[in-house]
Amino acid sequence: MKTSVKDEVQSRRTFAIISHPDAGKTTLTEKLLLFGGAIRDAGTVKARKTGKYATSDWMEIEKQRGISVTSSVMQFDYEGFRVNILDTPGHQDFSEDTYRTLTAVDSAVMIVDSAKGIEDQTIKLFKVCRMRGIPIFTFINKMDRQGKPPLDLLAELEEVLGIESYPMNWPIGMGKDFMGIYDRYFNRVELFKDESDNPYIPLNEDGELEAGHELADSQLYEQTLEEIMLLSEAGNEFSEERIANGTLTPVFFGSALTAFGVQTFLDTYLKFAPEPQPRNSTSGEINPVSEDFSGFIFKIQANMNPKHRDRIAFLRICSGQFERGMTVFQSRTGKQINLSQSTQFLADDRNTVNEAVSGDIIGLYDTGNYQIGDTITTSKDMFQFERLPQFTPEMFVRVTAKNVMKQKHFHKGIQQLVQEGAIQLFKTVRMEEYLLGAVGQLQFEVFEHRMKNEYNVDVLMERVGTKVVRWVEDDKVDENLSNSRSLLVKDRFDKYVFLFENEFALRWFTDKNPDIILYNPMDMK
Ligand code: GDP
């Protein structure tokens, strides 16, 4: 059945999961895909992560199931919605691409391990969501294990992340005493260990279980009621508007491993998560249902196989409708490009492909045409979407060409890879040494690999270590302030940047030099 672009766009929900490794991202993703019917067996996504299947097996599996589980985008249909989950690689794969993925989503789901609370990587990813002002939904996981008291976890959200919360449901006990959740939104209790088909017990008008239910007399339930009362009196008020602007996070408790609370989460999430929103461009706001096709590249994946130098550029569609073989403008260069060589991260079936609209992600074969942040559009205006934000690198290497005779190739390679957004380049002010900055080790490895394979240059990379990075507001700064603990460098736009040895060095410096205004582009507003 043919539906309008408007209907299609309204059905899209595109999000990423932000979490620290081991919080349960893979497990939750898998459970969500199960509900969406996109996979039949639990363990499928997990097996991919642990490399249990060879890639060819995966391609077979993808064909059978009509979804791509190996790629960075997973899609499923559920209750009239089309859900896109974008993967945010962590661990060793953590890179600027992980951050950039967050520029391509309309909301984020933050998973918190109930025993560990808010962890490092979660904080970093949260900051990027904050910068964009997108809604953030919190899933507190592993309630089947003993964790921190729920009220402490809410306090942590506020103290560590500076975001207020509204618990949509509340746990009744935890660990081996975990009985289920008290659902404030659906006004029901959902039982954890339930033998019957229906784990839901409706609550009465006062939000209580009818007397006589065995749980009604339990101490754990009593405690939950007390805490609910406390939340109602002293907690934040529910506000759809504040959820939408990302200043209030709805909080859900559950256990991804046992699939408990996951469907409740999904149902509620879909009620409040935004459909694709208009985006700013050089021609003003671009409406997602407008006729002209447009989108931007947020990630370029290089092929690590030296026999295949092609890459895939990931495009987030922002308006119009994608059609295979369509001709578009690349706004940066004004060049026309035919998109016959596009790949879809979904079933290889015409209908699905033709339905790709705002919110969806497509992969474009790239022979070196695209840069991160590029806009492509059918509009003659050739507008460009807002530049992607600058992310603060944390680790640095000093880089030189192994063979001095290869300087020309070396410079060309660096220029191109930096422009493409693969890595950030800095030059020390005195010696004009090249430093590369990244948010994860993987970026250096990809850089080294591509320099060798695409520019035929062996590079030497010398570890400089992690730094606390601050840009200088002013265009002038006394270059004599540069020393080993506060190294002054210039970024590729010739802006001054200090690389501090650690937080302490930063504080010492700001105390001594109160006139120099420093900023971190990723600081929370
Ligand atoms: P990721 O690194 O965030 O993708 O985390 P995984 O989904 O791989 O989970 C990390 C570990 O936590 C695995 O051993 C999971 O089985 C376990 N895990 C995930 N969710 C739960 C949960 O709800 N309860 C318990 N007890 N373990 C969980």
UniProtKB/TrEMBL annotation:
Domain Tr-type G residue range list: 10-277
Keyword vocabulary terms for this entry: Cytoplasm, GTP-binding, Nucleotide-binding, Protein biosynthesis
GO cellular component: cytosol
Family membership noted in the UniProt record: Belongs to the TRAFAC class translation factor GTPase superfamily. Classic translation factor GTPase family. PrfC subfamily.
Gene Ontology biological-process annotations: regulation of translational termination
Binding positions (GTP): 19-26, 87-91, 141-144
Protein name (record): Peptide chain release factor 3
Cited PROSITE patterns: G_TR_1 (PS00301), G_TR_2 (PS51722)
Localization (cell): Cytoplasm
A molecular function GO annotation: GTPase activity
Function as written in the Swiss-Prot or TrEMBL entry: Increases the formation of ribosomal termination complexes and stimulates activities of RF-1 and RF-2. It binds guanine nucleotides and has strong preference for UGA stop codons. It may interact directly with the ribosome. The stimulation of RF-1 and RF-2 is significantly reduced by GTP and GDP, but not by GMP.
